[in-house]
């Protein structure tokens, strides 16, 4: 059946967490489980470097503060329109150039979920509906309520500061202009971690991002020190197929 004769249904899967928490790795595994799926990165919507706020003391661009590190209007409008029309448009991701450490998941787990999701996909096709799964990942993903409102599945990986910092220092990052970014001195303690706490305190009881319970029962909270990548994949995929039925 031609997709041109089908209506389109978009299922949005949100994967948030601190920088280097494993969300992009999880996103790639989830994509491997789902036919007709795409990954959108929050990093694709950052403004040009000259429009970023600058640290008043050190003068470097602030890529992490939630208020200015993302062009929220552009990202929200894109996701809202995508949800409405099902049209991805000509979207290219610069975040694919960023390095992520390999965290393998057993092929049997991926294969199991792929078979189940292909069955769900076929069932929708038989009802003249084209099912598209869109995985959205970002370290500030839950800051803007307009974006949160588009998500059908919401997951968050919580990671200890020392673990996140060590992982970040071992990676290379690229700006939208294609330049390599390396954290300047004191950037982590002055910018990155405070911005992470600021961006997520509204999500947790007593604004306790480090150990508090989530305010929303819809949030799938993963403690990275207590759960492995395979279990994250299983939990997310179970929820994805539940909301896709």
From TrEMBL:
InterPro entries referenced in this protein's UniProt entry, alphabetically: P-loop_NTPase, PRK/URK
Database matches in CDD domains: NRK1
Record Gene3D superfamilies: P-loop containing nucleotide triphosphate hydrolases
Gene Ontology molecular-function annotations: ATP binding; kinase activity
One Pfam family matching this protein: PRK
Domain of life assignment: Eukaryota
Residue ranges annotated for the Phosphoribulokinase/uridine kinase domain, each copy included: 12-172
PANTHER family: URIDINE KINASE
Protein name (record): Phosphoribulokinase/uridine kinase domain-containing protein
Species: Panaeolus cyanescens
């Amino acid at each position: 059946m031609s997709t041109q004769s089908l209506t389109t249904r978009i299922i949005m899967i949100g994967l948030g967490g601190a920088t280097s928490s494993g969300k992009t790795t999880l996103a790639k595994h989830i994509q491997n489980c789902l036919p007709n799926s795409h990954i959108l990165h929050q990093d694709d919507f950052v403004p040009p470097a000259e429009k970023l706020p600058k640290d008043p003391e050190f003068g470097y661009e602030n890529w992490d503060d939630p208020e200015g590190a993302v062009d929220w209007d552009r990202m929200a409008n894109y996701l809202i329109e995508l949800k409405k029309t099902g049209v991805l448009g000509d979207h290219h991701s610069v975040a694919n150039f960023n390095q992520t450490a390999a965290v393998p998941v057993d092929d049997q787990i991926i294969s199991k979920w792929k078979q189940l999701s292909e069955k769900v996909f076929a069932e929708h096709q038989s009802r003249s509906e084209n099912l598209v799964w869109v995985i959205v990942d970002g370290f500030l993903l839950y800051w803007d309520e307009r974006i949160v409102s588009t998500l059908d599945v919401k997951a968050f990986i919580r990671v200890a500061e020392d673990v996140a910092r060590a992982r970040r220092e071992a990676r290379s990052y690229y700006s939208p202009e294609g330049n390599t970014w390396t954290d300047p001195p004191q950037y982590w303690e002055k910018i990155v971690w405070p911005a992470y706490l600021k961006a997520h305190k509204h999500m947790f009881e007593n604004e306790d991002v480090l150990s508090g319970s989530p305010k929303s029962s819809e949030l799938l909270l993963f403690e990275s020190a207590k759960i492995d990548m395979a279990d994250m994949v299983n939990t997310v995929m179970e929820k994805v197929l539940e909301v896709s039925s």
